[in-house]
Design brief:
The protein is α+β, with helices and mostly antiparallel strands. It contains three helices and nine strands, in the order E-H-E-E-E-E-H-E-H-E-E-E. The structure holds cobalt (II) ion (CO). Cobalt (II) ion binds next to strand 1 and strand 6.
Length: about 130
């Protein structure tokens, strides 16, 4: 079912600082910052060639990553995203194996304009998994 690793998402308390660290200290190719108000995050992408690292800072009162930053004030790995060919089939497989899907259980349009599902980290060895239809 799983295709390529699409991105690793790191929640950070200060996106400008994290972007500078990747750009200046590590010499990486970092995108401009984007506000995604519908998703409650401000993001920048580090282009790793074979995949991306997504740096995310909470945006707004109801950011879905606000609680994560509260628990991990210095930042941390929020999720990894794997590509799947068919999100409906991925949803079915998750249900069959008893993995909880975050939210309504239905695929949503993710931060990159593609249908996604998030699997609960308690069912996936502590790291939340995002499945994105490639
Ligand atoms: Co993601």
């Amino acid at each position: 079912m799983l295709g390529r690793l699409n991105h690793v998402a790191l929640a950070v308390p200060d996106l400008e600082q994290a972007s500078r660290f990747y750009r200046d200290a590590l010499g990486a190719n970092v995108s401009v910052t984007q506000d995604l108000p519908d998703h409650g995050v401000r993001v920048a992408f580090v282009d790793m060639g074979n995949c991306k690292v997504e740096l995310m800072e909470p945006l707004g009162e109801n950011s879905p990553i606000a609680a994560f930053i509260k628990r991990n004030p210095g930042g941390g790995t929020h999720h990894v995203c794997y590509e799947v060919a068919d999100i409906a089939m991925a949803r079915q497989a998750a249900a069959q194996h008893g993995f909880r899907i975050i939210g309504s259980g239905e695929p949503k349009i993710g931060a990159h304009g593609k249908p996604v599902l998030f699997l609960h980290p308690k069912d996936t060895f502590g790291t939340m998994i995002e499945l994105e239809q490639a």
